[in-house]
Amino acid sequence: LTERPHRCATRPASFQRSQEAADYVAWLLKAFAGYPLAVELRHRSWSDAAADTRARLASRGAAWVYIDEPKFRDSIVQELDYNAGPMTYIRLHGRNAANWWDPAAAEDRYDYLYSAEALASIVGDTVSSGGRVVMYLNNHFSAKAVANAAILRHQVGQIVPGTYLPEMVERYPELA
After folding, report:
1. What CA–CA distance (Å, rounded) separates 83 from 149?
2. Which of 3, 95, 121, 144 is the 20 to 30 Å CA partner of 65?
3. CA–CA separation, 12 vs 162, rounded Å?
4. Tens digits of per-residue pLDDT, 134-148?
5. Measured between alpha carbons, how far is 93 from 36 in angstroms, rounded to an integer?
């Protein structure tokens, strides 16, 4: 769980749907009632029962986190829907499939820079959705999350505060 204005319970891909798992999620949501809630479920078994998963989360006022990551056989299957809950919570992990399961170092998994076009397709109708949209960038390797956050802010018409060192702009020219 994070110490931010919202609470997001993240479970590993091995956290499969079962009655015990559903009860645990319900317990967590009850424990944090009163906060804006989002739950990140990564195993495909949750999306195989998407209607039930959505209903359980909705009954507690929780958003189902949309996960952008490399997709594998057991990966959750989702479509980004800005009207699916009390807020839209998007988590961008990067798409570095080659280093996802067996990286040389843990941070190598998140060594991925989203192109402006890829971000635009994820952002989609964010501004026109009218609801609360939260994005968390986890592609932190070599400040790629910082670069992508600035690009995202620009794409949705927000001011990008501050200036970047020349080395940063050289590495990520879209920051210019």
Report:
1. 23
2. 144
3. 35
4. 899 999 999 999 999
5. 22
